[in-house]
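TA notes. Do not distribute before section.
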Amino acid sequence: MATILVVDDYAVTLRVLSAQLRKHGYEVIMAGSAREALERLAETPADLAILDIAMPEVDGLTLLRQLRADGRYQNMPIIMLTASGQDQDRITAREAGANDFLSKPVSSHELLDTVQRLLD
């Protein structure tokens, strides 16, 4: 089964998303920051990433741009996740290379459908 990187500075969100994904057979790599995400990716390749937009120090959009600039991650599907439902966030994320965008709280069904569609 696929390996998914989940990046969010809120520990509860990390645990909930990871549990949902693991329940459906995915291997999950968790990171609480952009720096930690890059370290985890260097250790274990991922097939897909879910990035929170609003994080301290380096936000998810900056991390998205860093990943897209790195040849190893140019084709990895990336889902942006945020509590903000603003259209501008969606536009900015798409322009930066996001494959999809989910708003918190995201249902298990919506999360899993999006992940499966991007991995197919």
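Switch to the second chain here.
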Amino acid sequence: MYLKEFEIRWNDLDANRHLANSSYVNYMSHTRMSALMHHGIDHNTLVNCDIGPVVFYEHIYYFKEALHGKVKVSFELAGASEDGMFFQFLHNFYNDKGDNIAACDMKGGWIDLKTRKLISLPEELLSKMHSMPKTTDFRTLEKKDMRSETVSPKPLKS
């Protein structure tokens, strides 16, 4: 498991004086990118390959308030397609006592920044992604695993 620690700042709180939803999202994003960099997928590598990660969804579960102090955010690879095009990350949040105060299931993919289309990871990055810490229930993903069957786009009717 990859862990990153954050100090909860005043501007990370919301009107109820607990950690704001947007702060959870920012902490997870920072943790993800740190974990990728730690495993050799850094900004320069992504620039050279002209690819970037795209989030399909993040589902956050809140268990207990975070009010002040520090919070640790974990990163684990919960799933990936064989070609690396799709991924699923799991984040858990822990307070100073080690209590699990929140969790997030996140799915996404990699896009070619020129064509703006989903792409498979180049072999050099695929091996790096597969070397990341995995959940005990890690699974191989397929395209059908990436979208919710109950939610689909609905155009605005004029």
